Amino acid sequence: MIEHELLRELAEKNTTKIVLLVADGLGGLPLEPGGRTELETAATPNLDRLAARGTSGSSVPVLPGITPGSGPGHLGLFGYDPLEYRIGRGALEATGIGFELGPADVAVRGNFCTLDAAGRITDRRAGRIPSAESFAVVDKLQAVRIDGVETFVKPVKEHRFVVVFRGPGLDGGVADTDPQAVGVEPLAPAAATPAAERTARVAAEFVRQARALLAGEPKANGLVLRGFAGRPALPSFLELYGLRAAAIAVYPMYKGLARLAGMTLVGEATTLDEQLDALAGCWNDHDFFFLHYKYTDSTGEDGAFAEKVRRIEDLDAAIPRIESLRPDVLVVTGDHSTPSRLRSHSWHPVPTLLVADTCRPDGLTKFAERECLRGGLGQFPAKHLMLLAMAHAGRLGKFGA
User: Fold this and answer.
1) In this structure, which topology does domain 2-87+234-392 adopt according to CATH?
2) What distance in Å separates the CA atoms of residue 240 and residue 28, rounded to the nearest whole number?
3) pTM here?
4) Which of 84, 165, 213, 269 sits most deeply, having the most CB atoms within 10 A of its CB?
């Protein structure tokens, strides 16, 4: 990637601090034509105040019209071209819970789901079964045995778990079994390439045994598998940017992506307040801080417009605590849009705000989709956001004579 070669050449060290606050799935849509999005509806006095001081724009996670998963969306924000660095969700989840993937491993994210008597999905997330319940269900899956393959099943959070297959001849090129819909049966594991045929057979056998073990469960009586992947290799933040990077996230997947990028995981926060405590506690030890906020995404996926508005307002209320640390650069954005109207990720550009003393004011006084479309950053590839953050932090030297 040519930007990475340039970064290695131009990156300079200093004492400036950069905070990247990612409100997962931040962007939205109006429920009715001409109405307001969730972000436009929310009362956000702190973000609006920062918008008047900083520069706003709209980031494109992958390419125009392409709907990203959370992995590609975050890769772009971290400065990795998601088309060049393709990481399966399974690898992210496994790494996020501290599982060390080996070279012969294929990791898969599992979702418990609820099936009716005919085997059709009635709830893709098993009612977001609480972690205490789902961990007991995961224990049942430890009984799966597949000839010639080691199988590791680990709980993650709520309805999520990780399966790792270890053995010769495995490849991550297997399609998801999640049909992304209710009223239909889970899909069969299908190899996308000849190299993945064995993995598809192994996954099918895992599903067969798992379904039998889960048959008596009231909620989690089925499962779908997503993001088959082997261990990836990313250049680290220290190597690319010269930054000592910290990650403060609640959900394992985002911890996993941060670990793969060479960030240090900080704390075991389960709430936003605890995340902010962790941010303050590690402030003197790092230069870059990735702070992940999940609930703008989960509420969007649930189609809960009013709840997403409330979660945005909760995030806005936390902004002064971040400001009190006096970051030199504060970026507020999302990894993708998750409109409540669509109940899913979407291709829409993501509102982005960059605040630093070196910002060129663009005249905006509100942080929201319509305003960001008129902002000074324009509409830009998300993979360029780190370049902008580094420049405003005084961490990029001059290119050329």
Assistant:
1) Alkaline Phosphatase, subunit A (3.40.720)
2) 32
3) 0.80
4) 165
